[in-house]
Amino acid sequence: MSDLLERLRERGWRLTAQRRVVAEVLDGDHVHLTADEVHARAVQRLPEISRATVYNTLGELVSLGEVLEVSTDRRAKRYDPNAHQPHQHLVCAQCGAIRDVHPSGNPLADLPDTERFGFTVSDVEVTYRGTCPNCASA
Amino acid sequence: MSDLLERLRERGWRLTAQRRVVAEVLDGDHVHLTADEVHARAVQRLPEISRATVYNTLGELVSLGEVLEVSTDRRAKRYDPNAHQPHQHLVCAQCGAIRDVHPSGNPLADLPDTERFGFTVSDVEVTYRGTCPNCASA
DNA sequence: ATCCTACAATGGACTTTGTCTAAGTCAAGG
DNA sequence: CCTTGACTTAGACAAAGTCCATTGTAGGAT
């Protein structure tokens, strides 16, 4: 986390209170907040922070490769700070809970050349869907 | 296609001009239109069709399992009429072109029990990203 | 320590995507 | 060919996100 701020400073990022707060809010495991959720939490620490700034900062963090944008949900994009370890997502279809997961094997290798239509394939995104233990017992 | 209309009638669907037009617009291979694109094309055949009807009809087709909703793009949902053959998607990061693809292997099987967090996993959605031949040569 | 200035933040208007509703229309069975 | 409940319509509304002109400030320069 402070590593993150360190790394960003080295890349010429101007360190403002707003950016620090956004970075802090995103810290943790299995964190997948929407922009609005990030904003709501940021406001608790820095009441005057604006929505536009949160969007800008998230966008910058994504461009810098420090945060991933995921669309596990069909509504808002979510922001995943776990950008340095490849992983996929497991989503509860009922409550929307999200966990980072690490499938065995490499799904990229599962796409035969005959199925590539001349594309240069560089990335694959996998979303598992199901029911979480909480929702199953309810 | 006319099979589709047939099947829907059998399920008690009232067959209106609007619904027929939406179904026609969705016909074909590698078709992945957004709701707005479906509306734009539907209007060419039936000028008075409203946006709400297109949304309603697409929603019904999805509920009936005749069309899939996919979010390969981070903006609008896309509608895929190829619902009866399991497949995944390959997307060009530049131009947004989408192809249906059939990876070997079963990605569901690649998620070990230890990575399931007690979830009952029922479905998996895979999106490959890359550059299409057109964009690569440009 | 203070000044400068380019970069960042603000808030409000705007856009896109999608949903809802009240009123009008029509497919299809009787 | 009448009736009726399902379907469609237009437009208001909502949620998520972008844009822009203005104001503020981090951090190097003095």
UniProtKB/TrEMBL annotation, chains A, B:
This is Fur family transcriptional regulator. Belongs to the Fur family. It comes from Streptomyces maoxianensis. It holds the Pfam family FUR. The keyword Repressor applies. InterPro entries: FUR, Fur_C, WH-like_DNA-bd_sf, WH_DNA-bd_sf. CDD domains: Fur_like. The keyword DNA-binding applies. Keywords: DNA-binding, Repressor, Transcription, Transcription regulation, Zinc.
